[in-house]
Specification:
The protein is about 40% helix and about 15% strand. The strands form 8 sheets. Strands 10, 11, 12, 13 and 14 form a 5-stranded antiparallel beta sheet that branches. By secondary structure, the chain is of the alpha+beta class. The protein contains 35 helices and 31 strands. One of its GO terms (biological process) is endosome organization.
Length: about 1000
Amino acid sequence: MTSLFDQLEQVSLRTKGSSDLSSLGVMDVLLDEEPAIFTKSKKDFTPLDKVTHVVIANKFMVLAMANNVLFRMNLHSPSERNEISLNKYTQGKLTNLFLDPTGNHLFLTFASKSKSTEMPELMYLSRKSDKIKTSGKFRTNEFTAIGWNNMNESDSTTGPILLGTSKGLIFETEISLEGDKFFAPSLEQYWRQLPNYLPLYGNKEVDGLVFDIGKNTNTPVTTLEYFQVPGTNKYMIFAATPSRLYYFYGSAEMEEKPVLQQVFQKYLNVSETDIFLASESRLGYSRLQFWSENLIMPNQFAWVTEKGIYFGQIDDLKDNRIATVKDKVSLLPYPKPLYEDYSQSPKYPIAIALTEFHILLAYTDSIKGMCLLSKEVVYEDQYNEAFGKLVSVIRDSRTGDIWALSENAMFRFKVHREERNIWQIFCVNNQFDLAKKYSRGNEVCYNQVLLKEADMLFEQKEYILSAQRFAEAQSSFEEICLKFLKVDEPDSLKIFLRNKLSALDPKQKTQITMLVVWVVELYLTKLEEIRLQGLEKSASYDEVQKQFETFIALQEVADCIRSNKSTIYELMESHGDKGNLIKLTIVSKDFERLIRHHIFKNNFRDALEVLKSQNNFELYYQFAPVLMQEVPKPLVNTLIDQGKKLGPLRLLPALVSCNGELHYLEVIRYLEFCIVKLKNADKAIHNLLVSFYAKYDSKKLMEYLNSQGQEVSLINYDVYFTLRLCAEQQQNEACVKLYGLLNLWESAVDLALKVNLELAKTMADMSPENDLELKKKLWLKIAEHVVSEKNDIQEAMKYLSDLIKIEDILPFFSDFLTIDHFKDAICNSLREYNQKIQALKEEMEEATNSAEQVRNEIHSFRNCFTYISSADKCEVCNMILMVRPFYFFPCNHMFHSDCLLAELEPCLGMTKKNRLSDLEKQLESLNTQSNSDNNSTGLSGMTRRDQVKAEIDNIIASECLYCGENMIRNVDKPFIEDFEYESITREWQ
């Protein structure tokens, strides 16, 4: 059966996405075959004559041929080419070509054919021109090296440049073709006089001279290069001679010309040994070349001399003197064999091409490629007589292309992943950062580097770093764990396990659980060891505790702990770590367990604090009953703080289970908070409060009942439940109040008379005003109580009113009482009766007179008449009245029947409208029938037609349209209806 450790290892390997890696570190991994690092291809180019010199920059090639013709070609567009004859400009022998990095500026150097006839010459040719320019100031020196301005991009000026001579002199100048200077006899923009403090050359001041390396000797400058540090005004300058490599570093202001002369100034009085790297050489030349990652600042260089290849790194920010450069320079021997015949002298490279990790060495008949790190030859190529002697190998600094030219042919080199095996070299040299950098694209190789680094760190007893590297690598999980266990390094093992845990997929539950439990066990063991030493308050304990808390707070760890609570809790209990047990429950949000733990230990206030610190309100309902029994006041304070977040109904089990004065006071306080502050209207809450009031506080009971009002539909408590409860607790005053709510007025007054007389009076006054019989009955009960119980005749007389007369209360008095006690009351009663009889007589007489007046008006109205003129018009349509049926009203308003109907119909209700429409249909139907249908019917003798017409008249002509009540009702009716408003507004516009 596979162990958990093996499963973890297998899953980890699958997670990394690599194939079978079980044998990593034991056997080499076979890689797919790849092309050679350097491959050569011949270009379709054949010069017209033998090539003697060649330069290439920015895909622009210039070469000189034996026939003294200069050939130029754009390598990006080979059709762009031209030839220039040098015989037209000079009879001197061409010694060298210098092309700037942009390919725009070309210098040609010539040696005199006879020392007596001509001086050396330096000529200039622009890419934009076919005419070669010269300067008189250049004639006195034989220039062997030029340091170009690598920041310059202009095609009309070179910017500040350095020129080295065959005698070790270094000049600064600038060539410009702008304005009239293109046609001027002097090309140089400035060539200033040497300051007085510079050394003299031949006891004469030399124009433009900035430094003298040769010191009056024939020491040629073979290479010049300078670079400006990005973002600063600092410059680094390299100058090579056959046996020395000079390094200058300093500041210069671009506004001051010459610019680079400012850098050389501080080296004028410095010992020579402090500015160069020396190499004994009998050769008359050396080759210096730089490699740059960003084409601005060099990262490394190779200096080829007789002794070998000096290879070094450059840091533009730190290397401010030659000593720091020397510390990073190593001497590499030339690749073997260097001899065609051991009897002959050794051959040395005539040109070099530097890449990041390799160097191509060009000989007259071959090219060798050597790795700068392993010193091994990785490429070798021979050139036969058909191609002629090899002229040069050139690396284009702008594009990185490498070209090789022989006398009769041109070749291009391609570099294929030269860094493919570099990681192995770095790994062997224990340069693991670089090894990881160059192996990062290959999982297998990268893993090998990690394993070797981890093993080395383990041997050096750097266990923490070793654990980190082992966690990144893919190797045997059990083997690594055992390595750390054998050396008793639990802290390192813990780091290894934690890093492994972070690399696992969340779906790998089993592996995550195993690692989490193991790491927790290691932390708990460490903490226990410190506690046993009595250092629980120490900084070391706090540091471990902080790390542990950070660990259990991780999302994947917290999820795992939640799924394995019992295991983790058992671990902590076994280590006696109560503090972390509590913290763990908080991290895993297992508050229920923590609260139970506190309650079990009778730490009720701690349990309440935990309850307050979490947001699961279900726990309040769960633990409130227990906490209410033990800590009622703090619990109620907590419940009040939570406010509306808690449902009071769900807390009822905790509230009803209380006993004792302290408990009911706190329960009442919480219930009052719910009702007053939270405006809770649940009947159960109100009923519970009433029950506590009825048992313990009758005063608050009455205040509560009064605050609820007298409307049964608006009160929040159960009246019948409260009445029964108050009756049981003999709360008579409350019962009286409740009887009144239930309209049991007689019971209310009867009970109130047992409490106090004023309460009975109040209840009698509260009885319905419209039920006079009930009021009378209630007041008679009060009067009877006063008479029978108190035998107070004077008090009883006070109840006499419109409802209760003296005769109503007389039966309550004793038969032995004399009439003298009621004399005044009886007299008053008789006077009131007499007044009422007289008032009734007056009302009857007024009614009789009104009836007689109405009868007279009706009689006179029957004989009333009026005259209608033929000229009278309808009030609505203003047409002659008598042309159509009409109505005439006593107010003298007259209307055509149809006009009156049209005006009145919108004002009629829906019922009358429907009835009127039905009557009109009946009348129309009766008008079309025969006369036999119109015979009289009923006792009135009216025909059916007359009846229908009379009913229509009753609807539309019961009152005048202008003078009747309908006009008064519609006085506030708008002239324009709402639905007509928009249309009429548009018409007016």
